[in-house]
Design brief:
The protein is an all-alpha fold and about 700 residues long. Helices cover about 75% and strands about 0% of the residues. The chain has 29 helices and 4 strands. A two-stranded antiparallel sheet has the order 1-2. A two-stranded antiparallel ribbon has the order 3-4. The radius of gyration is 27 Å and the shape is globular. The N and C termini lie far apart (about 75 Å).
Length: about 700
């Protein structure tokens, strides 16, 4: 119960990318909220295991649980925090009725051959309006504004546009039917993902936190890297990577681990802005770290029809590369400032930590094992939740009793509220995008600007992700951007492959790349291209495009001017927010670079022989190290600006990845290393001689 009686602050939830006000709940209201959260968790566990019901009805009840919960904690605006929320209670009750109406009257609609009666339209309209309002409160103005923009385009002003953007319009009846009863509206595929995969993994994370796994992760990180130079910062990278995979929110991760790691980094000599930037970059990386990635990963699995386990397995190496890239920056900065490792008395013994917390590995093992042998992620998550409770009894200090389990169920429901609202409202946007074929129109817009240039297209996707990220949580940003741009991006990746394998193929078919800017001709061109791509390559190319968009959707957390993970960390470190954002952007450079490798060198996604994958990983690591050296200006000793530029150019050469350039880049790095070591040793000898002469004099 104490989980819900804390004083409200300007809070951030699901992905924490949007600042929203939350209401303090006390007394009976807190009790009702607590009980509803427990009921929501129990309902979703049952409907994903033993209680089978039609998806659209389950999704309507998903709405009927979380929209009322959201109205209870998110006020109309910050000024109404202290007012009696009678209107919000009415809206919460009305949203329950709207969800139940679909459950009880869906069959009657089918009996009328999908003909809506006035009462159907009334409840569909109310449901849509409630969805838009609660999305505004829980996730900011951008999602509902996008929904209204697309709705108005479909209903009215699309008919006044010319060319490719013209849309004749649809009736309000059809729109309401698509939003309320159809499988691509509020209660459609996105709601299914929210009510199954996403909820159960949020609940899994809540049980892990309640069992004490968070403390274990931080102690384990300290015991592993605490003795190295810049140990606290490396510990932040390590612990935030593990915690972020569970928390589902970069900002929540920043708060939970940063409150411990940022003061430790400052005590060992890191500047406040750099300490905060390290935490922000590491916490953002937690969303791309398997085995439990952000909610967008479940959407990706559903849309691409690629198993979640396969996505997790493919994503592991790139995520590790990202964190190693952050560590390169940390190590360079620690060396440049002459920082010392963590004091020995502050470092717990590794085997003592492992002895106390090894049972926390059991639930992760259960989760991965069950998915590996073919069980669904939802089934595996349910068993893993049970394994958390069992494993806790193998520890001395974190055994979960009945009230701990009940609190974990309540925490899972509470943590899911904002995520559920974001995903449900995303269903509105996606439904309209599909209804009016905006994905095709947006692809044509990209093709007009970028033509057949894959790199320019990736740049446009990156810019779009930053713009959307200024007002959208990362999950919504990924969903919208993937809907609009992924099909065209996948086709360009396939086109690049075919042109590399058979350079004259397009001309031999009587076609040209200029056809890409014409919708009809582009469709014919890409249809032929698809026939030339082997199935295993097509799967990897599809995953590469979605992973690129997924990674880029995380960038708003560390990219000024709106970078809430960095700003949150700056608040903890008491540093300048904008300067912290600049440093976080630099530390997270791998977030922008590595996804390009998905597209241009899919060996990193295990396409091709193993030796090629290993070579690609090694080259990217060397390139990331050169990037860190160039930006930090320290390698063996402080570097002259010209040497920093040379290391930066060498990094670009390595990122290009053709085999000859890789060997040239590796050779340049080796030569620079030898020169720096020799000159550094020479300088030390000279300093020693000068000191000896001074002492003799």
């Amino acid at each position: 119960m104490g989980l819900f009686t804390k004083k409200p602050v300007e809070a951030t939830e699901d992905s924490g990318e949007v600042m929203v006000s939350t209401r303090e709940l006390t007394g009976r209201t807190a009790t009702v909220f607590y009980c509803l959260c427990i009921a929501a968790s129990v309902f979703h566990v049952l409907t994903n295991t033993v209680w089978l019901m039609p998806e659209i009805q389950r999704n309507a009840l998903h709405y009927a649980f979380f929209v009322p919960l959201a109205f209870m904690i998110y006020p109309f605006n910050a000024k109404s925090l202290d007012k009696k929320p009678y209107v919000d209670w009415f809206l919460a009750t009305l949203s329950v009725v709207c969800g139940l109406y679909l459950v009880f009257f869906e069959d009657a609609l089918h009996a009328r051959n999908e003909q809506m009666v006035p009462l159907d339209m009334v409840f569909a309209g109310i449901t849509l309006l409630l969805m838009l309002e609660i999305a505004r409160r829980a996730a900011g103005k951008i999602i509902p504004l996008l929904a209204v923009f697309f709705l108005s385009y479909a209903l009215y002003w699309g008919q006044f546009l010319s060319g490719n953007w013209n849309f004749p319009g649809v009736t309000i009846t059809r729109v309401l039917y698509r939003m309320y009863f159809a499988p691509d509206g509020i209660f459609g595929s996105i709601a299914t993902i929210s009510a199954s995969y996403v909820f159960l993994f949020v609940l899994f994370g809540s049980f892990l936190v309640k069992s004490g796994a968070g403390d274990f992760i931080i102690k384990l990180a300290i015991s592993i890297v605490g003795r190295s130079v810049g140990g606290p910062a490396k510990m932040a990278v390590f612990s935030s990577g593990l915690m972020g995979s569970v928390s589902g929110s970069a900002v929540a991760n920043t708060v939970s681990t940063g409150s411990i790691t940022i003061p430790m980094m400052k005590r060992t000599g890191f500047s406040p802005k750099f300490a905060a930037a390290v935490e922000a970059a590491a916490s953002t990386g937690g969303q791309i770290m398997p085995p439990i990635m952000g909610a967008g990963a479940f959407v990706m699995a559903q849309w691409t029809q690629i198993s979640y386990l396969h996505i997790v397995a493919i994503s592991f190496i790139p995520a590790i590369l990202y964190f190693i890239g952050v560590i390169f920056f940390v190590h360079s900065r620690a060396r440049s400032e002459g920082l010392q490792p963590t004091a020995e008395e502050d470092i717990p013994r590794f085997f003592d930590v492992l002895k106390e917390g090894w049972p926390f590995f059991i639930p992760i093992g259960v989760l991965i094992t069950l998915m590996s042998i073919g069980y669904t992620p939802t089934y595996a998550a349910c068993w893993a939740i049970g394994a958390i409770v069992g494993a806790s009894w193998l520890t001395k200090n974190h055994r979960m009793g009945l009230m701990d389990i009940v609190d974990a169920l309540a925490l899972g429901g509470k943590n899911m509220v904002a995520t559920a609202i974001i995903l449900l409202c995303s269903g509105v946007v996606i439904g309209i995008v599909l209804l009016v074929s905006l994905g095709v129109k947006f692809s044509m817009l990209i093709s007009t600007v970028a033509g057949s240039s894959l790199l320019v297209t990736i740049g446009l996707v990156g810019v779009a992700s930053l713009i959307l990220g200024m007002g959208l949580p990362v999950t919504a940003s990924y969903i919208i951007l993937a809907t609009l741009s992924a099909p065209f991006l996948v086709n360009l990746i396939k086109l690049r492959y075919v042109m590399a394998v058979n350079p004259g193929f397009i001309e031999s078919m009587g076609m040209s790349l200029d056809m890409i800017t014409d919708p009809t001709a582009a469709g014919a061109l890409f249809a032929i291209i698809n026939t030339q791509v082997p199935p295993e390559h097509a799967t990897v190319f599809l995953l590469a495009a979605h992973l690129l968009i997924f990674w880029y959707s995380q960038s708003a957390n560390v990219t000024p001017p709106v970078c809430l993970a960095a700003y949150t960390a700056a608040g903890i470190a008491k540093s300048d927010p904008f300067q912290t954002g600049i440093h976080a952007f630099k530390l997270a450079s791998g977030l922008f670079i590595i996804p390009i490798m998905f597209v241009y060198e899919p060996a990193i996604l295990f396409l091709g022989p193993l030796w090629q994958t290993i070579l690609t990983i090694a080259v990217i690591l060397l390139a990331l190290f050169c990037t860190a050296v160039s930006l930090e200006g320290v390698y063996i000793r402080r570097l002259h600006p010209l040497l920093r530029i040379l290391f930066g150019c060498n990094a670009v050469l390595l990122y290009a990845l053709p085999e000859l350039q890789c060997w040239i880049g590796a050779g340049i790095f080796a030569i620079l290393t030898v020169i720096l070591k020799y000159t550094s040793a020479f300088d030390l000898e000279k300093e020693a001689e000068e000191a000896a002469l001074t002492e003799a004099a």
